Amino acid sequence: MVKDNQKLQSHWGNVSQSIERWLEERRELLAKYCDLTEIIDVDDNAIAHTEQLEVFCELMVDYVSAGHFEIFDQLHKEGQLFEDSPGLEKEPNILEKIQSTTEYVLDFNDKYLSSNDLDALIIDLAGLGETLAQRFALEDNLIDVLHSSHVTKLLGEPELS
Fold it and tell me: Pick from 62, 59, 63, 67: which is nearest to 35 by CA?
């Protein structure tokens, strides 16, 4: 029993560290996004804007990839380890909604990787901002359901309904 609790604590701590690192990447992504939204005239210094956009897109794709190929998998394994049936039941619905935002993000990335035409950038950034806000809320929900909810089990406190 003690060994099982140590295993749970170790896994939970490792996932917490991964999530913190990932959320730091999110903050960096948001900062780069805000920098891009300050562009008023894309014709003014277009080369610098293109480079700024490339850095942003790379960071955005890295962030999204880390979610899908690292964080979500760790959260799923944690749900299994904690035998969290309610959390695991909610997971597919949340992931399905996250996937639709992933498609939007990748379409944005593909559009601006294949073109230096920045004429639609300001409009596209507005749509991307809405999509990222939706995605971040869904990711936070997934973290709450499959990670934060387990802290009470680790501490041995009764769960609140």
Answer: 59
Residue 25: HSE in the Cβ half-sphere, 13 Å Cα cutoff: 19
**Could you tell me if 90 and 134 are in contact, meaning their C-beta atoms sit under 8 angstroms apart?**
no
Q: What is the pLDDT of residues 101-152, one digit of tens each?
A: 999 999 999 998 887 777 788 899 999 999 999 999 999 999 999 998 888 7
CATH at 38: 1.20.120.1370
Q: Which residues contact 8 (CB under 8 A, 6 or more apart)?
A: 81, 82, 150, 153, 154
- Asked if residue 129 belongs to a domain, the reply is yes
Q: Is residue 98 part of a domain?
A: yes
Residues 6 or more apart whose CB falls under 8 angstroms from that of 81 comprise 7, 8, 11
Answer whether residue 83 is part of any domain: yes
Tokens 């039941």 locate to 89
* Tens digit of each residue's pLDDT (9 = 90 or more) over 21-46: 999 999 999 999 999 988 766 666 66
Q: What percentage of the chain has pLDDT greater than the value 90? A: 65
